[in-house]
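Lab meeting, item 3. Inverse folding demo.
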């Protein structure tokens, strides 16, 4: 198993991506090429960037990819909020997926903080 798969941040991010794709399928046909696609791409970006960053040699490069993943979580949260306001998501689905995004964000932040601590000690 690849080392990134053992990271809680990656595991939460993968779950977030799966749930976002499932939710995006429920959007109206006219949104499939717009908001649904944007939600899917942002959701994919989170675990993909965690995985890619973990394969990098230096912690500075790793942090860059984790920062990108963190930005993608903000994009996912915004797309979910818009979808909810446009009534593409039920309250239950919105709250459930938002909770997953929050958990993914918290674990990713913890990983970023840990990486920053390691980097700070080296300098």
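The presenter then showed the designed sequence:
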């Amino acid at each position: 198993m690849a080392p990134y798969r053992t990271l809680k941040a990656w595991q939460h991010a993968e779950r977030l991506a799966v749930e976002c794709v499932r939710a995006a399928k429920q959007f109206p046909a006219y949104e499939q090429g717009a908001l649904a696609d944007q939600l899917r791409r942002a959701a994919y970006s989170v675990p993909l960037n965690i995985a890619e960053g973990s394969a990098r040699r230096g912690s500075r490069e790793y942090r860059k990819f984790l920062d990108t993943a963190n930005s993608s979580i903000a994009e996912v949260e915004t797309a979910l909020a818009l979808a909810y306001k446009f009534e593409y998501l039920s309250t239950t689905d919105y709250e459930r997926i938002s909770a997953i995004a929050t958990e993914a964000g918290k674990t990713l932040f913890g990983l970023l903080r840990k990486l920053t601590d390691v980097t700070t000690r080296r300098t």
